[in-house]
Amino acid sequence: MSIPERVKNKMKAVGLKSVNKPQRLNDSSGKSHHVMASEGGKYKYIKFGEKGASTAGKPKAGESDKMKKKRASFKARHAKNIAKGKMSAAYWANKVKW
Predict the structure, then answer these.
(1) Has residue 1 got a pLDDT over 70?
(2) CA of 38: how far to CAs of 19, 47, 58, 97, in Å?
(3) Torsion over CA of 87, 91, 47 and 65, rounded to 10 degrees?
(4) In which element (H, E) is residue 3 found?
(5) Prediction pTM value
(6) ∠ at Cα 59 (79, 63), nearest 5°?
(7) Using H for helix, E for strand and C for coil, what is the string for 25-92?
(8) How far is it, in rounded angstroms, from Cα 48 to Cα 67?
């Protein structure tokens, strides 16, 4: 399935190169990343992640208990929205930032 012209135009306008590939965002919106999400033939432009937030990042060997708890708290707090899939900002924040 090819990408509709209106979606291509939006991606070009916001500087995205491909669908379902998050990128850093440099604007004054307060969000840190953006993505053109696609699932089941539907498309949605999503901004996500708090700019400047000290997120836990990806798990690392020897990670502190504080960071493990921080990651677990985020995932528990947003579990319902993460489960909604690619069309939710929480899904992308979980995937990219946590």
Answers:
(1) no
(2) 7, 14, 24, 20
(3) 170
(4) none
(5) 0.89
(6) 120
(7) CCCCCCEEEEEEEEECCEEEEEEEEECCCCCCCCCCCCCCHHHHHHHHHHHHHCHHHHCCCCCCHHHH
(8) 21
Cα distance between residue 14 and residue 46, in whole Å: 11
Side chain identity, residue 29: S
Residues in the chain: 98
Tokens, residue 67: 């960071």
Give the model confidence (pLDDT) of 21-67 as tens digits: 999 998 888 999 999 999 999 999 999 999 888 877 777 788 888 88
- In this structure, is the dihedral angle defined by the CA atoms of residues 14, 20, 25 and 31, taken in order, positive or negative? positive
Distance CA 4, CA 32 (A): 26
- Residue 60 contacts by C-beta under 8 Å, 6 or more apart in sequence? none
